[in-house]
Design brief:
There is one protein chain. With 103 residues, this protein is mostly helical. The protein has a single domain, classed as Methane Monooxygenase Hydroxylase, Chain G, domain 1, CATH 1.20.58. The chain is 90% helix and 0% strand. The chain has three helices and no strands. The chain has helices at 2-29, 36-80, 82-101. Helix 1 (2-29) runs antiparallel to helix 2. The relative contact order is 0.08. The mean pLDDT is 80.
Length: 103
């Protein structure tokens, strides 16, 4: 799972770099003209942006699913071990109370 996330991050970064590079090329190409070359570059930039958006959407979906899985696991743990969960919550509350009272 971690390898998949890393490859997704690498792919996203690669796509974002490609978008930036093509956008810079587009700016240079359209500085003095608005002919066929400019429209071709615009099409490349749009394709790169679409690909980057899809990758960002995939990463967002994966992150949401991981968060939901973590929430389900936490919920199951608390239901299976209520006294331990209460002990941990009380310990965290005590530590926070001590930290706040020092100020």
């Amino acid at each position: 799972m971690i390898e998949t996330q890393q490859s997704q991050k690498d792919r996203l970064m690669s796509d974002l770099h490609a978008v930036v590079a093509e956008a810079e090329s587009l700016l240079r190409a359209t500085a003095g003209q608005a002919g066929e070359g400019a429209s071709e570059m615009r099409a490349k930039v749009q394709a790169s942006l679409d690909r980057a958006k899809r990758n960002l959407h995939d990463l967002q979906d994966a992150a949401v699913e991981k968060a939901r899985a973590a929430g389900r696991a936490t919920d199951a743990y608390v239901h299976d071990n209520p006294w331990q969960a209460m002990g941990v919550a009380a310990g965290v509350g005590l530590l926070l109370g001590l930290l706040i009272s020092r100020r």
